[in-house]
């Protein structure tokens, strides 16, 4: 579904952020991108969503193809229209807008009938958003804001949902709820590309995974194989 081949990205004239990155996100599956600070995870998300330029980055070689369409240098709107939707890092919701208004913004590209169906899907997944629909997003808890950010991304009926660090700053019990919801969203037919520093959670919910280190893919394979790899266990899962 999404195929990234030999992708090189630089910031400014020469700061290399990604080097020869290969990645495949398959339909019907959850694919995790793991890596520590500075590994290049956000850069990869920016490249896929077409917003590298805003942070001074550019693709210098390689390709990003989604459902047969080359989106390597496509603008963000065209990438969204092709079926890729991002729930950004830091659960960036529109704080002053109500929950319902946030969701409506997410659904602005689809027709009214689809918007109503997607709204039903989102409040079915996250009933708390229906309970709070008239409240400004700023009044939601961190976990609820994360649900709103994911819900907003789902409002455009994406084929591929990108989740950037959905567990960041959340209590373990809330992380577990988000993890269950990722599995449910995928079970309903949406492919997911999940960027996480919480490797344990990411490997638990993914089918496939890629480990990025200083801009290069260090390892890739099935999530189960990576979870049982001794190097991954000691470096990413905190096991002895
Ligand atoms: P984190 O988990 O901390 O967000 P990350 O894995 O997302 O890290 P990136 O933010 O993609 O990593 O950074 C990859 C490399 O690119 C780092 O060396 C970083 O310093 C550099 N970098 C990121 N953004 C910029 C920018 N706007 N200008 C210059 N260099 C940048």
From TrEMBL:
InterPro entries to which the protein is assigned, alphabetical: AAA+_ATPase, ABC_transporter-like_ATP-bd, ABC_transporter-like_CS, BCAA_Transport_ATP-bd_LivF, P-loop_NTPase
GO molecular function terms attached to this record: ATP binding; ATP hydrolysis activity; branched-chain amino acid transmembrane transporter activity
Pfam families from the UniProt entry: ABC_tran
UniProt-listed CDD domains: ABC_TM1139_LivF_branched
Domain ABC transporter positions: 2-239
Biological process terms in GO annotation: L-amino acid transport
Keywords: Amino-acid transport, ATP-binding, Nucleotide-binding, Transport
Domain of life, source organism: Bacteria
Family: Belongs to the ABC transporter superfamily.
Protein name: Branched-chain amino acid transport system ATP-binding protein
Record lineage: Bacteria, Bacillati, Actinomycetota, Actinomycetes, Propionibacteriales
């Amino acid at each position: 579904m999404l195929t990234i081949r030999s992708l090189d990205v630089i910031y400014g004239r020469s700061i290399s952020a990604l080097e020869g990155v290969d990645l495949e996100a398959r339909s019907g599956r959850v694919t995790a991108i793991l890596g520590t600070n500075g590994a290049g995870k956000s850069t990869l998300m920016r490249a896929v969503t077409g917003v590298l330029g805003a942070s001074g980055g550019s693709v210098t070689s390689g390709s990003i193809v989604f459902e047969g369409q080359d989106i390597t240098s496509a603008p963000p709107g065209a990438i969204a229209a092709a079926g890729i939707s991002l729930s950004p890092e830091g659960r960036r919701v529109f704080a002053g807008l109500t929950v319902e208004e946030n969701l409506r913004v997410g659904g602005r590209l689809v027709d009214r009938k689809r918007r109503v169906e997607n709204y039903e899907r989102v409040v079915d997944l996250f009933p708390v958003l229906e309970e709070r629909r008239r409240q400004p997003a700023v009044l939601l808890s961190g976990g609820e804001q994360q649900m709103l950010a994911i819900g907003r991304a789902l409002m455009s009926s994406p084929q591929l949902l990108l989740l950037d660090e959905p567990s960041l700053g959340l209590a373990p019990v809330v992380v577990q709820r988000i993890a269950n919801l990722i599995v449910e969203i995928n079970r309903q037919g949406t492919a997911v590309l999940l960027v996480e520093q919480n490797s344990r959670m990411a490997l638990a919910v993914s089918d496939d995974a890629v480990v990025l280190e200083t801009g290069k893919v260090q390892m890739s394979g099935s999530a189960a194989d990576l979870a049982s790899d001794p190097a991954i266990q000691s470096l990413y899962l905190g096991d002895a």
